[in-house]
Specification:
Order of helices and strands: HHHHHHHHHHHHHHHHHHHHEEHHH
InterPro entries: Sec_Metabolite_Reg, XnlR_reg_dom
GO molecular function: DNA binding; zinc ion binding
Shape: globular
Largest sheet: 2 strands, antiparallel
Structural class: mainly alpha
Keywords: Nucleus
Protein name: Xylanolytic transcriptional activator regulatory domain-containing protein
Helix content: 55-70%
Main location: nucleus
């Protein structure tokens, strides 16, 4: 209780500071020491950018030079803008792409002095999009298009310029939808699920600003009419704020900030951006709301939907379901056997809905557009499948509760099966090179912490169980994909994508490592034997080929992942100090608290 009160007080203080202190423009000298001195929001507008401390210090020292204020050349910025559209907007839509493209060109007209205007409302968002492009592009693409620039330096420069544009625009004292979107891009792109209270301390700000802008209200009900595209952009920004709030609540164990009765926003449209507002699109949306037509598939004749828009809508369905689970968690009554039964039914219905949504996306397409291409379609389909398995971990603790475990012990294998299935899909998303464009999101933002810990607890509880070896193999494959900073990381060739963590995030993975050591030793296994990353990547690529074949044949996908025989595999360098036979294993974990938290079946 005290922790929650402290966090609410901290959030109120941060918002009060921002609203009182940002009514004036700050000079460059005043701003020099502020943007990345701390990961906290107290006293600053933005958190630390994802760069090394040495790069940050070197960049701050060069801020006084005139060239430090210059953007990269336009050809490089064009590449970064397209990267944002293809790698970011395709899966996190915050803008109307045709309109935003026009704003981007207007920004360059302003830079060249050919425009009569001396400002544009979209400047912070344009700069934030360019910064996001530096973060999420692959290294090979960067070398091809922007080889004359140092990537980390360009990243910090654009971060600084976007930050300064937000300051000058008086955000959040005088917010707009564009400046809120810019702030969200700058803050959420490098979110880490292991650090919900440090990297996501901005959530209170975006929720309050969204409410100040009225984004929590359905725009079609406003007295002053908005264009179809403006209304859809407002919905997109609101739903992303809502999703961030839910994800942080799931990761932190704290209640969501958005009250369940404080919003009435309509679901996102599935119509492609260029068709929004057309008569045909408006008629299709109206028929959908009335239930007089079925949702279109991508391959339907004259289809107006795209895989990107279907995925965005499926992601919101996932968020709404997760919010319902949170409502149960923070409800006034403990879960009973009847609650468990209804939750199981809800999980099954949600899994059916999300698989039905995924079936509307075709993997193979002759189209090569940011919202419809082979790589995006396969990625979106696989993420939606993973979402169908994702929340079964929620059933684990109540199933192990002594009061109801005897009546529901037969449900435990189902929970374990779905957690294994989710982790296998996650490994495929993190390991397959076809999905490099979106590694900033999966595995960058999202980590399978609940699934890994649940499987670890089960193999520790029953090391000789029927599926124990399979679970250990899957856990080892996930651990093999971890980077040097902790957490599962993507890779580009032999280069592991950096995924910097603070102390809290590193401790989460240290805990997982210690849990694995205890479980493996209890099973009489060598905990230092792991598959190599290359072996896991090869398995993931084989699985992706199998999934494509099953989908094209009309078969419901099954993750029948082959197990690895570990006895002849190399030892991962992260575990290069094996325990000797005389060593005593004593992990830094209070196992009484751990077992009390997760329960035991007697």
């Amino acid at each position: 209780m005290m922790t929650r009160v402290y966090l609410m007080s901290r959030e109120a203080n941060e918002i009060e500071f921002l609203l009182r202190g940002l009514n004036r423009q700050m000079s460059l000298t005043e701003m020099d020491d502020q943007p990345w001195r701390s990961g906290s929001l107290t006293g600053v507008l933005l958190a630390t950018p994802p760069a090394s401390a040495a790069s940050i210090r070197a960049f701050i020292q060069k801020q006084s030079s005139p060239e430090a204020q210059n953007l990269p050349a336009k050809h490089c910025c064009d590449f970064l803008f397209e990267t944002y559209v293809w790698n970011y907007h395709a899966i996190v839509p915050l803008v109307h792409e045709p309109s935003f493209r026009i704003e981007y060109e207007r920004y360059w007209e302003l830079k060249s002095g050919s425009s009569e205007k001396n400002a544009t409302a979209a400047t912070p968002l344009v700069l934030a999009a360019l910064w996001a492009g530096t973060v999420i592009c692959t290294q090979s693409d960067w070398d091809l298009h922007c080889a004359t620039y140092e990537r980390e330096e360009a990243m910090l420069k654009l971060y600084w310029m976007a930050f300064r544009a937000l300051r000058i625009s008086n955000f959040p004292r005088l917010p707009t939808v564009e400046t809120l979107s810019a702030y969200i891009v700058l803050q959420s792109t490098s979110m880490r699920e292991e650090e919900p209270l440090s990297t996501a301390s901005f959530v209170g700000v975006i929720v309050r600003v969204a409410q100040m802008l009225g984004l929590n209200r359905e725009p079609s009900l406003f007295q002053a009419s908005l264009s179809t595209t403006a209304a859809e952009v407002r919905r997109r920004v609101w739903w992303h704020v809502f999703r961030i709030d839910v994800l942080v609540a799931l990761a932190s164990g704290l209640p969501p900030l958005i009250d369940r009765d404080s919003w009435d926003v309509r679901m996102l449209s599935e119509v492609r951006d260029e068709l929004l507002g057309t008569v045909a699109a408006l008629q299709y949306e109206e028929k959908l709301r009335e239930g007089s037509c079925q949702p279109q598939k991508v391959l339907d004749p004259d289809s107006m939907v795209s895989p990107a828009s279907i995925f965005a809508r499926g992601k919101i369905e996932d968020t709404l379901f997760a919010r319902e689970l949170l409502n149960k968690t923070f409800g006034p009554k403990p879960m009973t056997s009847d609650d468990l039964k209804s939750t199981q039914q809800e999980l099954e219905r949600f899994q059916e809905r999300i698989l039905k949504t995924a079936k509307r996306i075709t993997i193979s397409t002759a189209t090569e557009a940011y919202e419809n291409n082979n790589e995006l379609n396969a990625w979106a389909k696989l993420v939606l499948w993973a979402m169908g398995d994702r929340y079964w971990w929620y059933m684990h603790s109540p199933v192990l509760n002594r009061a109801i475990s005897r009546a529901w012990s037969n449900l435990l294998p189902r929970v374990i099966h779905n957690c294994r299935s989710f982790l296998l899909k996650y490994i495929c998303l993190a390991a397959c090179h076809e999905f490099q464009r979106w590694h900033w999101s999966w595995p960058g933002n999202h980590q399978p912490l609940h699934a890994i810990i649940l499987l670890l607890k089960e193999v520790e509880r029953d090391p000789d169980g029927v599926n124990a070896q399979s679970s250990r193999s899957i856990i080892d494959q996930a651990i093999s994909l971890c980077g040097p900073d902790g957490g599962i990381s993507g890779a580009q060739g032999d280069h592991i994508v950096p995924r910097a963590l603070l102390d809290g995030g590193q401790e989460a993975w240290n805990l997982i490592t210690r849990l694995r050591l205890r479980a493996w030793i209890k099973a009489g296994l060598n905990p230092d034997t792991l598959p190599t990353r290359a072996q896991v990547v090869q398995l993931a690529q084989m699985q992706l080929i199998q999934l494509r074949s099953e989908v094209e044949s009309g078969i419901t996908p099954q993750m029948n992942w082959p197990g690895l025989e570990l006895q002849d595999l190399e030892v991962s360098p992260e575990f290069d100090d094996p325990l000797s036979s005389n060593d005593t294993f004593s992990p830094n974990v209070n196992w009484q608290d751990w077992d009390a938290m997760f329960g035991n079946i007697e």
